[in-house]
Amino acid sequence: MEGRSGEGAEADPEHDRQYCELCGKMENLMRCGRCRSSFYCSKDHQKQDWKKHKQVCRQAESNPRLPPHTHPGQPCRKEQDPQQNQQHSQRAAAAGDSAGDSTEDGAWDGEGTGDGTGSENPPGSAQAHVDTESTGSESGCVPQHTGNNVPNRHALSPHQKLATEYIGPCMNKHGICVVNNFLGDELGLGVLEEVRALYSSREFTDGQLVSQRSDSTKDIRGDKITWIEGKEPGCEKIAVLMSRMDDIVRHCNGKLGNYRINGRTKAMVACYPGNGAGYVRHVDNPNGDGRCVTCIYYLNRDWNAKEHGGILRIFPDGKAQFADIEPLFDRLVFFWSDRRNPHEVQPSYSTRYAITVWYFDADERARAKEKYLTGGVDKGGKPVD
């Protein structure tokens, strides 16, 4: 995601929404020939995203109030007469039903192959209410969003609705946000299978601390970790997860406090082996290294916190209550990375998997890099938790 927002350039709302709906790429884009409002970097990515996009696509095409669009880099086209518009819509619909025939302006339509979720509607789409959870009489209620298949209004994509109507407001109010059923069972299980395979075949290392100054790391955190870029063989589903995370954060950008998010870390795949390992109370970013949002995806099926432990407990700064979040399968959690959210992972007595990505604020990250280059920080430290 780093580099997708042009640094130093004036924001252009029309340009900002021109990115591949699947991977976020902003170069060499082509516009969907049916709805004329979404972009993809390749025909393959449009096919993969079709199950998520088709509701928005069909609604946008049938809405006569939507303005005509042009392909990036192409001049505006003259309005067609009604008969031509009807003929074009019929051709576009036919192309969509034939799984990807080419259309004018280099764009395409397509039913595609879906994203592997096997569901007619995209997981994680918006719903009309928010559930709350409280795990213990002393814990604070954590707002949660549970995806179900409610039709989209105003031609917003599911991720746009989730970001703008729930995650952004929830983060600004509580500093913590929980989304259930983020990917759906089939895709979530695919991510879990890849993580298990990684743990079996790849050398995981002991989790490190921000400043590695003692040999007592295992007394502080007991997880095993590896870092994934998303391009590695056997990590295709993990790459889709990372892309979906990026999509959510991109739609939230400008609505998360005063942050201007312009990049992220690689994905940290972590495993608590189930031997009572945990992570004592800590802050992800105590010293202004640039990380502003922590995003965690959990992969633990049939998790019973009373039996298995492993709860993420957050102690929001200035509040008497704490928030307990169980590491349930297909659950996505967001929270501020700085001193506002000290947190711990309680001892786990069953194998516990999670994937964490940290998003950077552009200004704080620039200051941190300058401080690092001028010798203002311990260069032996590692900015990971």
TrEMBL record:
UniProt EC number: 1.14.11.29
Named cofactor requirement(s): L-ascorbate
Keyword Nucleus: yes
Broad class of the protein's primary localization: nucleus
GO biological process, one term: cellular response to hypoxia
SMART domains: P4Hc
A GO CC term assigned to this protein in UniProt: nucleus
Pfam families, per the entry: 2OG-FeII_Oxy_3, zf-MYND
Top enzyme category: oxidoreductase
Region: Disordered, residue numbers: 42-156
A molecular function GO annotation: ferrous iron binding
Record-annotated Fe2OG dioxygenase domain positions: 263-361
Record key words, sorted: Dioxygenase, Iron, Metal-binding, Nucleus, Oxidoreductase, Vitamin C, Zinc, Zinc-finger
Biased composition (Low complexity): 92-101
Domain MYND-type: 20-57
Reaction equations catalysed: L-prolyl-[hypoxia-inducible factor alpha subunit] + 2-oxoglutarate + O2 = trans-4-hydroxy-L-prolyl-[hypoxia-inducible factor alpha subunit] + succinate + CO2
Domain of life: Eukaryota
Location(s), subcellular: Nucleus
InterPro entries reported for this sequence: HIF_prolyl_hydroxylases, Oxoglu/Fe-dep_dioxygenase_dom, Pro_4_hyd_alph, Pro_4_hyd_alph_FE2OG_OXY, Znf_MYND
Name of the protein: hypoxia-inducible factor-proline dioxygenase
Species of origin: Clarias magur (Asian catfish)
